[in-house]
Every structure is written in C-alpha cells, then in structure tokens.
Amino acid sequence: MTTRVPWSQGTWLNPPPEAREDGGDLVVLAAGGSDLWRTTSYGFVRDSGHALLAPLAAGEAVEVSFVAAHDRLYDQAGVLVRVDERTWTKAGVEVSDGAPQLGAVVTRGASDWSMAPVPEWAGTTVTVRASRAGDALTLRARSGGGPWRMLRLAPLDPGAAALAGPYLCAPQGEGLRVRFTRWATGPADTGLHDPVA
C-alpha cells in the first residue's frame, strides 16, 4: 500500500527553469546541460540535475511515475535517492544508443552505470520503485500496468539520512519536458525476489 506524496512536500535540488502542476501531474522543464555524474570515464563532476526530494527512511519505498517521451541523447527521468553529493543512486529511463534505456547510476565517490534497451517503453507511463531495506536499495521498474522488472541492487548505509523523489536531466541540450504523474511512498519490499504489491 502506497500513499501519494503532494508535489508541495518536496524540496528542489537545483530548481528547474519551469515546474507547474497540471491536473494533478507535475510538468517540469529541465535546464540544458543539467546532469548528475561523478568522474568515471568522462572525467567530470556534474551535480546540476533537478530533483524534488523528501526524506526516505529505512524500511520505506518510493515510487515515481512519468511519461517517457524524451528522445535526445542522455535525456533522462526517474527517481533519485540521495545521501549527499558523493553518495546517490538514480534510476529510470535514459536515451542512449538511439533508444530508451532502463538504467541506473550508483555513485559512491565515483559513478557507475548499467542499462538495458526498452524501446517499447517510449511514450508510455513508466514507474520506478526504490525500496530501502537493511543495507540495500532495491530498484524495480515497469511500463504501464506491466510486470515489475528488477533493475539493480545497490548498497545503502542503513544509518544514512537519505532523500528521494522524482528527477530529470538534459545533459546535451534544452527542451526536455517531463510529465510526472505520481509520487508515492510506502513500506519497503519484504524480500529481494518478492513481487511488489
């Protein structure tokens, strides 16, 4: 059972150029060049991505739903779980290799990146779920009402104060607009391989 989080309850990390409520959704415009990345391979640090964040306690999960309609290289949207500028995880849909990719970046001093193509998810409503239990963050995603897909299992200090919520970035240019349709929290998943209720 999840409970919707009002958009007004979040605090912006790097406020976007535009964010407005529309029929219960939140429509956000990303600044050109916005990104979240630390060092690996590219050699730069970027901490300019936009994220609407609220506390995520141990034993809780957060879900973010959005319409995946972006098409420029590296355009991305999903959920961000952040401890500080050197410790964070982002997961969602990102454009790479000419197609939407379901991916995650786990950052603990330096970033790593994993992805898998999901071209059939283009233009659909995607939900990303980050579940915090014990020393782990379990990431899952789905398109529409389809089945959940396991995306990543990442470490997260059980004593860390973390924030989480919807995020978006447009590293390569301006014009990325994302419609976030839902932000909710609830109990963490009871097991790594248990289906989400």
Care to describe what's here?
The protein has strands at 3-4, 11-13, 18-22, 25-29, 36-38, 45-47, 50-56, 60-67, 76-84, 87-96, 99-108, 110-117, 125-133, 136-143, 149-155, 162-169, 177-187. The radius of gyration is 15 Å and the shape is globular. Strands 1, 3, 4, 8, 13, 14, 15 and 17 form an eight-stranded antiparallel β-sheet that branches. A seven-stranded antiparallel β-sheet has the order 2-7-16-9-10-11-12, with no helix packed on it. Strands 5-6 form a two-stranded antiparallel sheet. The chain has 197 residues and is mainly β. It has a single domain (3-186), classed as Jelly Rolls (Sandwich), CATH 2.60.120.
Any idea what the CATH architecture is? Sandwich
The end-to-end distance, rounded to whole angstroms, is 7 Å
- Poorly predicted ranges: none
Q: Helical stretch count?
A: 0
Main CATH class: Mainly Beta
Overall mean pLDDT stands at 96
Query: Roughly what percent helix?
Result: under 10%
- β-sheet strand percentage: over 45%
The fold-level CATH name is Jelly Rolls
InterPro entries: ConA-like_dom_sf, DUF1349
Protein name: DUF1349 domain-containing protein
Organism: Vallicoccus soli
Pfam families: DUF1349 (PF07081)
Question: Which key terms come to mind for this protein?
Answer:
197 residues; mainly beta; Jelly Rolls; eight-stranded antiparallel sheet; 59% strand; globular; DUF1349 domain-containing protein; DUF1349; ConA-like_dom_sf
